[in-house]
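Appendix B. Chain record.
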Amino acid sequence: MTTRREFFKIVPIVSLAASASTGFAQAKVDPKDAQAASLAYVEDATTSKHAKYVKGSACANCQLYQGAAAPWGGCPIFAGKQVSAKAWCSAWVKKA
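C-alpha cells predicted for this chain:
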C-alpha cells in the first residue's frame, strides 16, 4: 500500500515521464540528417523539387503524421523525432 507521502513523491516523476513520452522532449528532424536527406525531407513542402511531390501535400495531410492540428508532430518514419506540419518527404501518403 502506498502512503500519501510516497504518492506525492511519485507524482512528479510520473508526470515528467508522461510529458516526455508525448513529444515535449523530442528533437526535431534535421533536413541534413542522412535518413531525412534520403527521403528528400524539407521543412517547407513548397520548396520541394522531388519528382513525387504533389502541390498541396505536406506532413499535416499525410497518413503518417501524428500531430493532429499541431505545428510539429511525430512520424513513424522518423521515430523519436518530430516533423513540421508544413514539411514533406517522399514517404508522404495522402490522409484517408
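Further analysis of this model is presented in Appendix C.
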